[in-house]
Amino acid sequence: MPGKTYVQTTINGEQVDFLCEPRQSLLECLRDEIGLTGTKEGCNDGNCGACTINLDGRIVTSCLVLGVEAEGATIETIEGVADGSNLHPLQLAFLENAALQCGICTPGFIVSSKALLEENPNPTEHEIRFWLANNLCRCTGYDKIVRAVQDAAKRLQEA
Amino acid sequence: MTTTDYERNMVNATKTDFNVIGTRPVRHDGTDKVTGRALYGADFDTSGLLHGKILRSPHAHAIIKSVDTSKAEALEGVKAIVTASDFPEVEEKTGEDETKLKWLRDNILASDKALYGGHAIAGVAAVNPHVAEEALNLIQVEYQVLTPVLTTQEAMADNASILHDSLTTEELGKDTGTVSNVASHFQHVKGDVVKGFSEADICIERDFNTTTVHQGYIEPHNGTAFWSADGRLHVWCSTQGAFAVRDSLSDLLDMPVSMIRVTPMEIGGGFGGKIPIYVEPVAALLSKKTGAPVKIVMSRKETFEGSGPTPGSYMKIKVGAKKDGTITAAHAWLAMEAGAYPGSPVGAAAQCVFSVYDIENALIDGYDVVVNKPKTAAYRAPGAPNAAFGAEQVLNELAEQIGMDPIDLRLKNVATEGTRRPDGPVFRTIGAKEVLEAMRDHPHYQSEKAAGHGRGIAIGFWFNIGFDSACNIAVNSDGTVNLTEGSTDIGGSRTSIAMQAAEVLGIPVEDVRPSVVDTDTVGFTAITGGSRTTFATGWAAYEAAQDVVRQCIERAASIWDVDADGLQMKDGSISSTADSELSMTFKELASQLSDTGGGIMGSASVNPGGVGGSFAGNIADVSVDEDTGKVTVERFTCVQDAGKAIHPSYVEGQMQGGSVQGIGWALNEEYFMNDQGNMSNSSLLDYRMPTALDLPMIDTVIVEVANPGHPFGVRGVGEANIVPPTPTLANAIYDATGKRMTDLPMSPGAVLAAE
Predict the structure, then answer these.
(1) CB atoms within 10 A of CB B139
(2) Would the CB atoms of A95 and B693 count as touching at under 8 Å?
(3) By C-alpha distance, which of B446, B507, B519, B435 is closest to B473?
(4) Which of A106, A138, A146 to mutate: most B Cβ within 10 Å?
(5) Which of B395, B293, B391 is closest to B51 using CA atoms?
(6) CB-CB: which of B266, B299, B492 is closest to A44?
(7) pLDDT in tens, B310-365
(8) Cα B13 to Cα B703: distance, rounded to the nearest angstrom
(9) Topology of the domain comprising B48-146+221-267+274-297
(10) Which of B4, B51, B348, B562 could form a disulfide with B129 if both were Cys (CB 3.0 to 4.6 A apart)?
(11) Are B684 and A48 in contact (CB under 8 A)?
């Protein structure tokens, strides 16, 4: 079995160090080595977006990043989106607009949508759909997800 | 984007005097699901956990001559390997039972033949998934490759390569003794079609083909098993039915159901595909060998190739009508791929194909055909979308030839209360007419099409099911209740069930805490499927809440020392009709239970009749790129009869989700099989499901024609909505281009090539 590498990161504001094999993806490290299972695996080849995280200010599919590549990185996962026990406006909007059914894609959608609203606080429907085209949802048909993001944008602007 | 001056999500409510039902509370499990806390099957962990992987056949049709695992076993970190020979021996089964058990087991781990590319051959448990995967490469399998058969036409041909030497055709209920790939042929006959067609002024007859498609749930199959030293088997998995997993494992492993406990984890989509089991028995056998818990999670490729998609089909539809639009006769000839083992949804397709209409003379032939593809599983109204793709296009052609509006033609022939379906059942109160009327009157249908756009409509039916459900409700001392039930929650059903209990108890839904529990903890509950959960488990919650009400009244009577007959419980209070002084709230009573005889727990197990089928219709506008053939859905409206929408947002969610799965099926999705019978597009890049960018908003109208067979009028809304999209879009493409699309998917190349 291959040797392990020591990796130092900052995850959701905390310093997190872990050991991983060179062949382990960052997704696998988050889930199996660190215990952050909120980030989901749907395809393991970058096509479904369920494993979307924020890595040094960019959203990436964590299944396409190796754990060892995260050395020195600042990472935000779904577990870091809420402010303690205060849900983020996107999380509230997803709940109140019934924008989830099974919920497996929801962490990826919320992490992606948060990055969208940070870059573009008032997106059009088309801009939301374009941005979220990398996240697959099979339950909702996206209608209520688009509405939730619109609603969250409004809440954030009013805040 | 289209601007609208109408309500995009309408509810045509017929009964509104409820406190909780018809409102839109936030779901009880919501916070866990937006914060990443909810635990799905792949998130399960326990001490000493081993990881399993499965070796799969690279050949679609081959004899397995030998399997040598010795090199793999020697790899450091490998703990156990299992093959079909590790299933326990069963002595008492013979004949047909023996064959059925063999097929069940062979689909989990093939014994003598690989019947599809991706068919499981062996399982490995190792210290981590990477080592297990390395070990797979060291297992040596000797195959004798055979010719695969990939479509019903190939499989039914005279000189076809045969999948099972033990499979003989059942013809109209009788075993013919003839070995073939046709497992069965059945017929439904109503009236006299020869006479009916002779009375028709116009007959339309066409052939249709549809390809294999996948449910496409985002979460791959998974399961963890621990075979304890005390002989009990514990399983944690994402499934549509914990009891179904328990019972399947009992059959496969030849052990009593009581020796198996299945804990349903949160489930990341199912749509029918997570009713059967795949990895759980392999994990169980590996756990038995190692004494350790073993987790197996499928990859996406395995999910496409080694689970159960919905079948491709070949269908001939003929419908005849008089000039005034009266349908005189209809014939459907339906052949559907079962996959590697018998059991396609052709029976269900036959129950739906003409059931929207009151047709005097109808004949339906159904053929269940095995092919070298994965054994098919249910997918949302299984079989019905295939059949509707043909039948609802033929209806539109008839309307065009007669010169009638296609909705008017349907209304002229629509099934109503008392109509006998071609397959036998007589409809009770149904909402087919009301759905068509809501379509006709919708601002979308009343609007002018944009220049160059085509418009299509269609309607579909799904019968829904009842089956067993159980529910317990325990009263807490603070006046809330804990509700436990056994229906996996895929789309908010915890809340729709809790709402029905809250309505009976007269308390806010937030005071009901619903949990989906394991098979040791609640009475037998059938799968989350067949659109049954809000109907049947909701009914169990209704009965369990009634049980609580009865006990609360008895307790109040004993506290007040009066006769229970004069007491009632309403809006969360118990009071006496005779003495206005005697009144207390449910909360007050709850706080006194311990001192007045102990806690109160209500429970119920039901297997309700009274199932009410659901109808769904679509209106769609499309544009078609003349150069590429690409179809863009510009506007889409879904109308469905919910009976009563318990939680309208989740009903809309079912309608929108089913519509979009249907849109994907219509325009993009298919299994590309190469000449050797292997799937060439088993990734989410190449098997292209709709993204947010491919779609418009999906407008909804919930029609409520109460189901007389349910206390609140519920029908069940999970499935009928996937039935009409494929013919709706075909009809819209025809309207835009003049091309009649008879094959699915209607991909750009297919639209360009069509005449």
Answers:
(1) 19
(2) no
(3) B507
(4) A138
(5) B293
(6) B299
(7) 999 999 999 999 999 999 999 999 999 999 999 999 999 999 999 999 999 999 99
(8) 7
(9) Aldehyde Oxidoreductase; domain 3 (3.90.1170)
(10) B51
(11) yes
